[in-house]
């Protein structure tokens, strides 16, 4: 995902990531035998694997921009940064829970890594679309974190978070539309009218 | 039961705005609705304080003195803004800046925004609290982009992105709190009332790390420096009534969330940790806002930076830890909400009369729009903490307890910052209010509802000063409940 150079590739890799999240939740659901978790896994599939990528693809078709992401940092360096993040999140998790539980530690480290990777995407990619995807990736990481540390948040909270995520994508899509209309590009690096 | 009025009326008004929003009469109905909300909030607050009963719990909803207080603050500003909007929108439509259809969108957003803010202090579940705060971000981002200009689109994009990232960190913090709680092996719950009951046995390190994420996350929303960068853009580009809501209460709802988590951390990991973090962020915010207020050219951005300053003062007040300081900070939240709304209303009138934001181009406000001029003059003295006004009392409460608690450095920084900001405000507004009228500018007066809204806020702030000896004991009691 971090080496993706074009918008469709980024959306596709987000799609794959969400699919793995769906599998992980399904596994957890089968383990704990709870109906709530099955419903949540279904929601992950519907929203994150199907609806949101579909919405984003339609958006880029509609606004007809170049599908270049605009990298501040080239793919090779991004990959190196990702390696660094993996190490960092591992160290952080060790500090957090101690070396007692290695399996949990690995999942936690993966979750923190996903959060960091999302942040990296938001900062080092120029287009507004990459920022949305970065945000969604961070959210995926948090979702994994929540389900791995405590078998998922309370049911209604999960639903509310899903709802918020979906609404935020719709609203941001609306704003991208507007940015494109007013500025004829979606390059957030050039949004610098307001200062001081 | 009053809480159902408070949550129900904005919900009904959302539906009503969807159907009748374009009608002229709707503005009045809207105002009446918020008047009822304000009265119920006042009754609710009175109930909680007089019965000294800590909590009311019913399903998702949990009310104690802190939430009742915040609901009161929100309802005051919401009512004043609804009243102001009547005249503001009327004038915009008259001048052709807005179509009548847009007023429906405006009222829809306004009511949704208020509804989501009322939810924040009313819910018990910390996850729902997060969802409600994220909802306020999303809705207010759309209202910031209400005027379709390049600047407002840019401002709302920055706002939604920065605050969404911030709030993701807050969610991370919430998950860590949840982990600390479920790790202790009692039950699985994210209810604040359950967590606070066992907070003393939770893992200290986990609480500390989690609270950092919470403070960074909700601090972004509250406008604490250095995460404040979205705030001046959003406040300056939003329509003035929305700016008043943003600055007056939206920032306070984030402060509320920080306080809720803070109470758990204080019980679990001691006061020093919480206090030092809040003091640090408070002082940084004060310093940053001082610099920007001095060199500011844009009227509404000036007020936005002043909001950062006041949020800094509030967090210093909570960080000091003495009951008197916390009481001062609570009072400051109320006073700042009232006075800052008044100032944004005034700024809205000035901008709509002069059609520009640049302070160097605005002269002779007192001659051009006399009523607004006088109100803004009073407002500046109140906002900068001049003695007979209400903000002076809350600031002096914080200062006294800083000195008696022998945190001289904090007190000195606070005094210095206040002095700089006072000077800067007098300089900027002195030039704007007095001075000669620009050529070709006619003297004009404001619509009745705008006048009423401003008079309401001024009288209310006066009433607070008058009632201060009476409510001081209750405030201190509230503050003791906090820590």
Biggest sheet of chain B: strands side by side, in what order? 1-2
**Rounded Rg of chain A:** 18 Å
How much of the sequence lies in strands of chain A comes to under 5%
Number of domains of chain A: 1
Termini gap of chain B:
28 Å
Number of domains of chain B: 1
Largest sheet of chain A: none
Please compute the radius of gyration of chain B using only Cα atoms: 21 Å
Can you give the helix content of chain A as a percent range?
Answer: over 70%
User: Portion of residues in helices of chain B?
Assistant: over 70%
Mean pLDDT of chain B: 88
Q: Count the strands of chain A?
A: 0
Shape label of chain A: globular
Number of strands of chain B: 2
Q: How many distinct helices of chain A?
A: 6
**Coarse structural class of chain B:** mainly alpha
SS-based class of chain A? mainly alpha
Q: Provide the succession of SSEs of chain B.
A: HHEEHHHHHHHHHHHHHHHH
Number of helices of chain B: 18
Task: Write structural notes for this entry.
The complex is a heterodimer of chains A (196) and B (483). By secondary structure, chain A is mainly alpha-helical. Chain A has one domain (7-190). Chain A contains 6 helices and no strands. In chain A, α5 (128-150) runs antiparallel to α6 (155-183). The two termini of chain A are 35 Å apart. The model of chain A has no long low-confidence stretch (mean pLDDT 84). Chain B has 483 residues and is mostly helical. Chain B has one domain (126-482). Chain B has a two-stranded antiparallel ribbon. The chains are: A mainly alpha (196), B mainly alpha (483).
């Amino acid at each position: 995902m971090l080496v993706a150079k074009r918008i469709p590739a980024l959306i596709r890799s987000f799609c794959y990531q969400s699919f793995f999240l769906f599998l992980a939740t399904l596994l957890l659901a089968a383990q704990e035998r709870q109906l709530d978790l099955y419903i949540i896994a279904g929601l992950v599939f519907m929203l994150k694997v199907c609806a949101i990528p579909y919405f984003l693809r339609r958006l880029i078709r509609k606004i007809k921009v170049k599908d270049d992401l605009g990298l501040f940092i080239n793919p090779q360096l991004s990959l190196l940064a990702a390696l660094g993040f993996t190490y960092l999140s591992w160290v952080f998790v060790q500090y957090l829970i101690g070396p007692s539980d290695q399996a949990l530690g690995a999942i936690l480290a993966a979750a923190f890594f996903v959060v960091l990777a999302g942040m990296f995407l938001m900062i080092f990619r120029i287009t507004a679309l990459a920022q949305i995807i970065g945000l969604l990736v961070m959210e995926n990481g948090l979702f994994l974190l929540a389900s791995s540390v405590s078998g998922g948040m309370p049911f209604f909270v999960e639903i509310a978070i899903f709802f918020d995520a979906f609404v935020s994508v719709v609203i941001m899509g609306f704003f991208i539309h507007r940015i494109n209309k007013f500025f004829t590009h979606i390059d957030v690096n050039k949004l610098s009218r307001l200062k001081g | 039961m009053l809480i159902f009025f408070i949550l129900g009326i904005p919900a009904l008004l959302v539906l009503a705005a969807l159907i009748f929003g374009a009608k002229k009469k709707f503005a009045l109905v809207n105002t009446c609705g918020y008047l009822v909300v304000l009265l119920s909030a006042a009754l609710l607050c009175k109930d909680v304080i007089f019965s000294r009963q800590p909590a009311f719990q019913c399903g998702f909803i949990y009310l104690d003195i802190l939430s009742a207080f915040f609901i009161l603050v929100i309802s005051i500003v919401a009512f004043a803004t609804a009243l102001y909007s009547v005249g503001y929108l009327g004038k915009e439509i008259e001048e052709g800046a807005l179509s009548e259809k847009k007023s429906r969108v405006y009222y829809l957003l306004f009511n949704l925004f208020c509804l989501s803010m009322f939810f924040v202090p009313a819910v018990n579940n910390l996850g729902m609290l997060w969802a409600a705060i994220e909802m306020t971000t999303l809705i207010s981002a759309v209202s910031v982009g209400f005027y379709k200009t390049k600047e407002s689109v840019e401002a709302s994009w920055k706002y939604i992105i920065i605050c969404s990232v911030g709030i993701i960190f807050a969610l991370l913090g919430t998950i860590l709190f949840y982990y600390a709680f479920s790790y202790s092996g009692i039950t699985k719950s994210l209810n604040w009332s359950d967590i606070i009951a066992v907070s003393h046995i939770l893992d200290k390190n986990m609480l500390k790390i989690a609270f950092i994420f919470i403070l960074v996350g909700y601090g972004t929303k509250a406008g604490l420096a250095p995460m404040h960068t979205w705030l001046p853009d959003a406040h300056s580009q939003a329509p003035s009534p929305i700016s008043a809501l943003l600055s007056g209460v939206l920032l306070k709802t984030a402060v509320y969330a920080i306080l809720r988590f803070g109470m758990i951390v204080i019980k679990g990991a001691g006061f020093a940790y919480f206090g030092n973090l809040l003091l640090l962020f408070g002082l940084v915010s004060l310093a940053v806002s001082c610099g920007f207020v001095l060199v500011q050219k844009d009227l509404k951005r000036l007020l936005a930076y002043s909001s950062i300053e006041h949020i800094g003062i509030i967090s210093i007040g909570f960080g000091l830890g003495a009951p008197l300081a916390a009481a001062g900070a609570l009072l400051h939240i109320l006073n700042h909400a009232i006075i800052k709304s008044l100032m944004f209303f005034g700024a809205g009138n000035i901008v709509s009369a002069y059609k520009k934001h640049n302070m160097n181009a605005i002269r002779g406000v007192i001659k051009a729009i006399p009523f607004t001029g006088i109100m803004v003059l009073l407002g500046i003295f109140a906002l900068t903490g001049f003695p007979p006004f209400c903000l002076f009392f809350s600031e002096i409460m914080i200062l006294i307890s800083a000195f008696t608690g022998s945190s001289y450095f904090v007190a000195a920084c606070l005094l210095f910052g206040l002095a700089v900001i006072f000077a800067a405000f007098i300089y900027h507004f002195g030039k704007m209010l007095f001075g000669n009228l620009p050529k070709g500018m006619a003297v004009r007066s404001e619509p009745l509802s705008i006048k009423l809204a401003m008079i309401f806020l001024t009288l209310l702030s006066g009433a607070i000063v008058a009632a201060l000896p009476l409510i001081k004991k209750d405030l201190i009691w509230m503050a003791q409940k906090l820590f």
